[in-house]
Each structure stands twice: as C-alpha cells, then as structure tokens.
Structure to design on (115 residues):
C-alpha cells in the first residue's frame, strides 16, 4: 500500500513539473492584459478621453484623460461602471459591452501611455 502511495505521489509531482509552467504562463498573460488588443478596444474611447480639455455639453463636466493611469485603477473603474456601482450612463453603456479580458487589455494599454 505504501508503494502505491509513493507511485501516486511521484506521478503527481511529475505532472506538476510538466504542466505547471503552461498553467502559470497562461495565468500570467491573462493577468497582465494584452496592450495591443487594448489599443484596438480603446479606439471608441478616444472620442472623449483623447481630446485635450474636453468638456461634455450636458451635463457639463470635464472628461478626464486616462492615459498613464495604473492598470488596477482602470480595471476597477471599468468594472464599477459596468456593474453600475459607479454612476455614469455613457460609461455604463460602454463598459457593459466589455469582457473581463477586454478590460484587462484596455488597462494594460492605458497604463503604458504617456499622460
């Protein structure tokens, strides 16, 4: 019985060494986001967030430039707009169409841009 237990443990350790790096690599890529994909997804956002000193007509408010923000902040903000926790009808509509991966990609792209 001890012999079969040792064989099972050895097989488990071997699997961890063989398949572990593949799982780690996959998780790391998703966690960081893909800046190139984020650049494509950000295209529709440029209309407001890419114009210097832009103010919305009604209701009047300043539209922030978001280039150079920390990725974690962008992710948090977009998820909050998507869920409705942050109130802004236009941002809610935009964020509602984004998957978690889209949000990670956009955050990766914006965090690499100069403010």
């Amino acid at each position: 019985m001890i012999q079969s237990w040792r064989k099972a443990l050895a097989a488990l350790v071997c699997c961890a060494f063989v398949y572990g790096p593949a799982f780690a690599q996959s998780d790391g890529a998703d966690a960081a986001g893909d800046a190139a994909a984020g650049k494509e997804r950000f295209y529709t956002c440029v209309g407001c967030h890419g114009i210097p000193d832009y103010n919305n007509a009604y209701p009047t408010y300043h539209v922030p430039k978001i280039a150079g923000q920390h990725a974690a902040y962008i992710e948090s903000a977009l998820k909050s707009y998507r869920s409705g926790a942050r109130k802004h009808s236009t941002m809610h509509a935009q964020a509602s169409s984004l998957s978690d991966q889209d949000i990670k990609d956009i955050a990766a792209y914006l965090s690499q841009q100069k403010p």
